[in-house]
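Retro notes (design track)

What went well: tokenization of the new backbones is finally stable.
What didn't: we kept losing track of which sequence belonged to which structure.
Fix going forward: every design gets posted as structure first, then sequence, in one message. First example under the new rule, 467 residues:
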């Protein structure tokens, strides 16, 4: 058997059911590795004694048939848990312990999973670097000088570094898929509404969703089944049946050279495996997305966060949240929203009533016209960049905005509420992971996961950080 820390969720559960492994042995190995690599900054809160006790209780159960029996998970720090703090990476919530687990993760615990740790993140999930001035920067296990992406950077770093077998993050515009891509793991964003968002510190109720981060698509699917209640899986799906869209003008422009090379190599591998590739672009997609993205997020954040605070009995104002925010980018954003930078309601209404329906129709028409199972594109146009480059990063010899560049490809599907999954496909010439994303039609989640699992086999990515 592998070293226990290298096991994915399926492997760990199977080993425990067979008697080859105990939850306590797994937990002890993960704790030792987590302590040894604490410099990754992957966690905001742990309670190792409590985790050991939980593992002992799992081992004492006569029946070990629950789907996630005895497997610890890292849960992002903006998802409520009753046993560890839900700080959302911000100063004013540093001591906040929720009264109950968020609904989605409660379903995982009901299925036998253990709360392993809380994952570090970009403050309040408002960024893509996880360079957090309150909790400290999360680091990329492939190169600790580099960002793991965000906002679920700590979760992705922990899974990639074998500190936890899998975890749950949140994704508004990129925040599960991007860190998964930059850390060489799998990140799945479901159709909005597939999982409950109850008990999650929000940005935008119409865009936010929790999502699994795992070592394999099969493990992501295992978490998906428990959070969604949907165990359906297409039967007898063959590579020769698949029609995958390749929107080159829409998603393949101005890529880092290594990302471009990896994308073209993967496309060629799919073609050689018998997949039908359909080269067709999605007109007006990026312009329409721009009319949705920030108007929705910046308006809803100012309604949704106060509602969460009230629901959770937290006597805090947005002014206090701003005052105790530590990261300059987040503090500046909230300050602007409290002042003259507030998003006008008419811009929000246009985004919700006009631009978003148009965006969703663009996708629906594209999938239907070309009879596509999914569209395929690089999750991010570039690989991980150094920690501290929060404002701009270098891409093809130019300095470009960090946030807008990293979410360029992930954002449109988010606003259309469709499912997307990032799978690792290659390492760059400097040893950094590269991910490719598949986006599918709305509510095609189970089918998309099945397609991704087949394509994951073709990618055959097996690299691990040299820790």
């Amino acid at each position: 058997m592998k070293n226990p820390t290298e096991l994915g969720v399926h492997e760990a559960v199977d080993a425990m059911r067979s008697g080859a492994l105990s939850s306590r042995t797994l937990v002890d190995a993960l704790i030792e590795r987590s302590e040894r690599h604490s410099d990754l900054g992957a966690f905001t809160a742990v309670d190792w004694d409590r985790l050991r006790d939980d593992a002992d209780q799992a081992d004492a159960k006569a029946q070990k048939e629950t789907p996630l029996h005895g497997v610890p998970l890292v849960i992002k720090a903006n998802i409520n848990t009753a046993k560890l703090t839900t700080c959302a990476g911000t100063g004013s919530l540093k001591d906040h312990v929720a009264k109950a687990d968020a609904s989605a993760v409660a379903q995982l615990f009901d299925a036998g999973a253990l709360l392993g740790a809380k994952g570090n993140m970009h403050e309040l999930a408002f960024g893509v670097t996880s360079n957090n001035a309150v909790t400290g920067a999360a680091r990329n296990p492939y190169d600790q000088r580099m960002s793991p992406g965000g906002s679920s950077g700590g979760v992705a770093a922990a899974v990639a570094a074998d500190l936890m077998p899998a975890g749950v993050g949140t994704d508004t515009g990129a925040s599960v898929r991007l860190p998964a891509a930059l850390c060489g793991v799998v990140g799945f964003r479901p159709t909005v509404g597939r999982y409950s968002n109850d008990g999650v510190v929000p940005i935008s109720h119409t865009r936010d969703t929790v999502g699994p981060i795992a070592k394999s698509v099969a493990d992501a699917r295992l978490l998906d089944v428990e959070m969604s209640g949907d165990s359906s899986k297409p039967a007898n799906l063959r590579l020769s049946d698949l029609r995958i869209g390749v929107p080159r003008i829409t998603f393949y422009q101005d890529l880092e050279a290594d990302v471009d090379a990896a994308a073209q190599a993967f496309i060629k591998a799919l073609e050689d495996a018998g997949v039908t590739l359909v080269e067709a672009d999605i007109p007006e997609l990026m312009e329409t997305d721009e009319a949705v993205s920030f108007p929705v997020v910046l308006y809803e954040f100012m309604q949704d966060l106060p509602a969460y605070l009230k629901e959770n009995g937290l006597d805090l104002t947005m002014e206090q949240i701003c005052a105790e925010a530590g990261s300059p980018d987040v503090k500046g954003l909230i300050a602007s929203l409290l002042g003259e930078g507030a998003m006008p309601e008419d811009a929000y209404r246009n985004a919700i009533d006009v631009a978003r329906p148009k965006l969703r129709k663009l996708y629906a028409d594209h999938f239907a016209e070309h009879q596509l199972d999914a569209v395929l594109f690089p999750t991010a146009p570039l690989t991980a960049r150094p920690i501290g480059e929060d404002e701009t990063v270098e891409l093809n010899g130019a300095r470009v905005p960090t946030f807008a560049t990293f979410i360029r490809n992930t954002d449109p599907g988010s606003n259309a509420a469709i499912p997307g999954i990032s799978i690792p496909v290659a390492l760059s010439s400097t040893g950094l992971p590269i991910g490719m994303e598949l986006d599918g039609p709305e509510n095609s989640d189970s089918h998309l996961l099945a397609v991704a699992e087949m394509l994951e086999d073709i990618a055959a990515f097996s690299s691990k950080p040299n820790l």
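Added context from the reviewer: The chain is about 40% helix and 15% strand.
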